[in-house]
Amino acid sequence: MRNTMIAQEPSLARAQVSLGDPEISYPLWPPITTGCPKTSNDDVQYPLEIDYDYGALDLAIFEQAPLPGLDRWAPLLPPLLDGLSIGEGGTPLVASPRLADLSDFDGELYVKDESQNPTWSHKDRLNLCTVSAASRSGATGIVVASSGNHGASAAAYAARAGLPCIVLVSATSPRNIISFVRGYGAAAIAVPSAARWPLMRQLQERLGFQPVSNVTTSHTGHPFGPEGYKTVAYEVYAQLGRRVPAAVFVPTGYAEILYGVWKGFDEMRRLGVTGHVPRIVACEPASRGALALAIETSRPVASVPPNPTDAYAIGSTINGYRGVVAVQRSNGAALRVSDDDMRRAQADMGRTGIWNELSSAAGLAGFRNALADGETFDGPVVCVSTSSGFKDIATGTHTAPEVSGEWDEVVAALRDTYGIRV
Amino acid sequence: MRNTMIAQEPSLARAQVSLGDPEISYPLWPPITTGCPKTSNDDVQYPLEIDYDYGALDLAIFEQAPLPGLDRWAPLLPPLLDGLSIGEGGTPLVASPRLADLSDFDGELYVKDESQNPTWSHKDRLNLCTVSAASRSGATGIVVASSGNHGASAAAYAARAGLPCIVLVSATSPRNIISFVRGYGAAAIAVPSAARWPLMRQLQERLGFQPVSNVTTSHTGHPFGPEGYKTVAYEVYAQLGRRVPAAVFVPTGYAEILYGVWKGFDEMRRLGVTGHVPRIVACEPASRGALALAIETSRPVASVPPNPTDAYAIGSTINGYRGVVAVQRSNGAALRVSDDDMRRAQADMGRTGIWNELSSAAGLAGFRNALADGETFDGPVVCVSTSSGFKDIATGTHTAPEVSGEWDEVVAALRDTYGIRV
Description:
2 copies of one chain form a homodimer.
Chain A: E1 13-18, E2 25-26, E3 48-52, E4 93-95, E5 109-113, H1 123-136, E6 141-145, H2 149-161, E7 165-169, H3 175-183, E8 187-190, H4 193-207, E9 209-211, H5 230-239, E10 247-251, H6 256-270, E11 279-285, H7 290-296, H8 321-329, E12 333-337, H9 339-350, H10 362-372, E13 381-385, H11 407-418
Parallel strand pairs in A: 5-13, 6-7, 6-9, 7-8, 10-11, 10-13, 11-12
Antiparallel strand pairs in A: 1-2, 1-3, 4-5
Helix pairs in contact in A: 1-2, 2-3, 5-6, 6-8, 9-10
């Protein structure tokens, strides 16, 4: 049973490195949560990533079964807190043979279902790393600004680490999300968006809390977080029977998971485990598309107006530089998908047994758009599904027709409400 | 990578066998959804289970890694529909070192987190089997009566199988659940409880739909369903490093999962893989407790009044005979846990990073009560957590205090709403 009992090896992490200039590095501790001090300026802030002693890695790590519990990848992650894992990762790669209008695609299509994580989104991979970092660097608590998955996931890991957690939400956050955050004993407070960052700074300076979400104008986030997303790549490689997909389509807000997936595949390539990386494709709401604009205009960072979208989990109005790196270095793309594209993908994925929040369906929507544009794929395609339909803005607003149980009434309800003729 | 690529072996299932008299068996097809015809009477109906050609089993099946995708256990399951799996099972066994008031317990305590399934509850293990059975026996659709997890899970698998699905809910079902069911394209209809079974029968007789929930007075359910729950036992055995726990505490309504967990361990014992079975402990809402009453009064089936409980997922007023078998043959117990016990367990499990619906916390509540009663356990203890907090009746009713972001206001909100003094 070697696969399930693999010992937690020590982390090979050795430094924080600037994405603004890979020659610039910083000690591993403490985590720098405000971007690279040397390369950032008022307009553009550059994230940091973690470097490892790759030469000391036992490559047998890539031969293990892709089970839950990210501590099995400990050598390639920042130092984790012992016992913090709640079974994150090891999510299924689900074959999707039953999707409509893909009849011109004869390849393999898979959905990486991140809703099968401890708090039912991909964010658990990140927060295992960020909350470990906070605890190991002596933080007295966790603060996070989020109206969705990130806040609840941070709350779960903070609770397990024994740290208090404050989640700054907005007054319009879905009520399900408030219950979700409070379920882990965290304190949810609704503050105007302009007050979030000043308050996070105060909680950091006055109380010693560590922010695990972004506090800079262009997104940099916590440097240890995106490392957790590398494990998506390690798992997909194992789940495909040690193959690299042709492309990975990723719902994209600030591009932390996009970057992590790319980095994981790039590590395997650099280590000689694989021969190439997949094309990494960002899928943003069409009404926003900050990363797409940055890439089109060859800028590290671009801003867009806060035009309406129901895909609130990925509705960023400014991109993080990580997305530019991942797309360019993988010969990928940054696609815009409309809310209607996402709604159709959401409904169709429901017919394959996977119920997404709207944002989570952006990957499949982007893949379809790419196919419609004549793109071809020489190998398996993976769409990342980030989170469950329970987080959707429309959830809890549906009703069921009430009938007495008389046959004619049932037949009428099926026809009128659902268009089912029996 | 043998563990992840194990071929789907054919099922060794060979007959339906009566729990009322194990000498009585029926052909494997068609599924008998109304209990054993020969042993049942108006007062008590006996379920059927599946028998296998155990002698033909390759015991190496118990050496594989406990990954998601139940088709890896195909030889010991009823025949599955090819491609129906959406990665059910393989859920983490989470160590729970941080629970309050267990200081007098120095053993190992684990939570089997079934919320990390495709529709975020244990029911996916059952519906993989029932929907496969319906499709393979020629059903034209699926009908299920459920106000919670079972309906949504059946809807997901029906959608993937390409079968229409009708979910009979009640007018008081949580709205989240209605959105959930509709997310898979199923038709939710609210009918009075007295009309459910007649309507299910009509859908069966007039349209050829197959019921995947119970249609008898004392619970019998679909004979193929509880077989899926055996995989919980197979996985726990692997996850404990090939050990058998001392006891498994299970939230209990109609005892389908209780029975499945017992049967899985009992199969391993009969096959010589293990030496004994764990004590199987049913945990029912104290205001109901039909199984506890049946066992106390040495009856196969008992009824209780519909006294109030918020644990709607396990609020049965009559037991299924399966629970009697599992508890008696494992030297287990049937415990009553109050809503307050469950609320405390729910809150405390939130502090370990696991957010349950109220019913789902019954296992831990029962374990605590057993400890308080002086029970001792010679080995690891497993509490099954069945489902996520998103299904809780209180979810969506919480709010967050709104503040401007001024420090004094934030301090007051933390103190007044959350009792946090900073």
